[in-house]
């Protein structure tokens, strides 16, 4: 079975800002430049669009996106995802045993249970956020540039962790990013977003090796080495 979005439209009074549809088997990267519509798409799926915008979302098989139940998010910046004055153990809504099990799942020792976010590195904080996301047993996990705020070593570790967890756990993975090099380590399928429209969609390897659209070719050639960071 695949995850299928038959229609996603985001619009204001004057314009349609995003108009896309897509389907993927297990892992999908939505790639585009800053301003291409990635963030709007993510917010629409999470039901977090500003009141000035409206959306129309149609999924196949009566799939419901319920934040905290069927859908979870790993955000770009782990530093703002947690309450700084609250111990890690109190940021979960689980028993002590369950919390420690999820911390272990993401490679953190039980001692992190009693720590405050300020005592953790960026990579460790992102692991905590991933543990929190997985703790609701989501049907679909959204990744919003989850390595942008990390150093190169932590970035590689987090990507390897996500890839490993996806193999072990049963969820769809939607990776929203501008970084093709990172996305291809995790995702089997890809959609190229430009000005709120998907200009190319397909198997990651095939799109990278034989892009059909000039925009995709330019995107790949650029390598996207620059940072795209949102606080």
Question: Short summary of the structure?
Answer:
This protein is of the alpha/beta class.
Structural write-up:
The radius of gyration is 18 Å and the shape is globular. The termini are far apart. The strands form 2 sheets. The protein has a 6-stranded mixed sheet with strand order 5-6-7-3-8-9. Strands 2-1-4 form a 3-stranded antiparallel sheet, covered by helices on one side. The chain has 231 residues and is of the alpha/beta class. It has a single domain (3-222), classed as 3-Layer(aba) Sandwich (Rossmann fold), CATH 3.40.50. 29% of the residues lie in helices and 25% in strands. It has helices at 38-46, 96-105, 122-134, 152-168, 180-183, 204-209, 214-222, and strands spanning 3-11, 16-24, 27-31, 54-59, 71-74, 140-144, 172-177, 189-194, 197-203.
